[in-house]
Design brief:
The chain has two domains: 1-85, Rossmann fold, CATH 3.40.50; 88-163, no CATH class. Helices cover 34% and strands 19% of the residues. The protein has five helices and four strands, in the order E-E-H-E-E-H-H-H-H. A hairpin with a 2-residue loop joins strand 1 and strand 2 (17-28). The longest helix is centred in the last third of the chain and has 20 residues, at 147-166. The termini are far apart. The relative contact order is 0.09. Bound molecules: adenosine-5'-triphosphate (ATP) and magnesium ion (MG).
């Protein structure tokens, strides 16, 4: 069965003010839609309401994903059903690549009983899958940096760690053996 997101006469408000006044939109599997409109016209409001953000109150209408009532589902169940809300302005966190973040998200959706700290799906397999999806969507592969970039990042991190070890010990610390004499575990 092909997948379909169907939005009918959706009305959404924030703080008692109606922002979306009857949105109709049908997106079928394989289609890419870009919502365009002036600032403040309600593009983010639509996305947040579909994702289940608690500040956005659905005042009327419906949204279904493959016939399931999306608006009746908890946000994590919407994610498990296939909805993902990407960041418009992602915060850069050193050491966390987009692929790593997505790998976590996909693992948690595919293995809903996974506990924090438990093994993720194979990143090698995930990267392969991600590239296929990006290819299908016509996305520039440069958005998923190749291994060489990750290796360079690891080398930078290793360099930082070495320079910390080489730094003179602070006066408040008790003297210990020089870094080079400590056993590596
Ligand atoms: N938390 C909020 N409380 C009250 N009003 C809000 C809130 N967030 C957004 N609005 C209002 O809702 C309307 C729609 O905003 P929204 O952010 O959905 O627009 P947008 O189309 O995504 O704009 P942009 O192009 O700037 O991203 C605007 O009038 C905005 O002022
Ligand atoms: Mg917006």
């Amino acid at each position: 069965m092909s997948k379909v997101l169907k939005i009918e006469n959706l009305r959404v408000g924030i703080d008692g003010k109606e922002i979306l006044k009857g949105v109709d939109l049908t997106i079928r599997e394989g289609e890419v839609h870009a919502l365009m409109g002036p600032n403040g016209s309600g593009k983010s409001t639509l996305s947040y309401a579909l994702a289940g953000h608690p500040n956005y109150e659905v005042l009327g209408g419906s949204a279904t994903l493959d016939g399931q009532d999306l608006l009746a589902m908890e946000p994590d169940d919407r994610a498990k059903a296939g909805l993902f809300l990407a960041f418009q302005y992602p915060t850069s966190i050193p050491g966390v690549t987009v692929a790593n973040f997505l790998g976590h998200a996909v693992t948690n959706v595919r293995r809903p009983d996974r506990k924090e700290g438990e093994e993720l799906i194979s990143m090698r397999e995930f990267r392969k899958e991600m590239r296929q999806e990006m290819d299908e969507l016509g996305m520039d592969p440069d958005f998923a940096p190749a291994t060489s970039t990750r290796v360079a990042a690891r080398r930078r991190a290793a360099g930082r760690s070495l320079s910390r070890q080489a730094a003179p010990p602070s006066r408040s610390r008790r003297p210990g053996p020089p870094a080079a004499c400590r056993s590596e575990r």
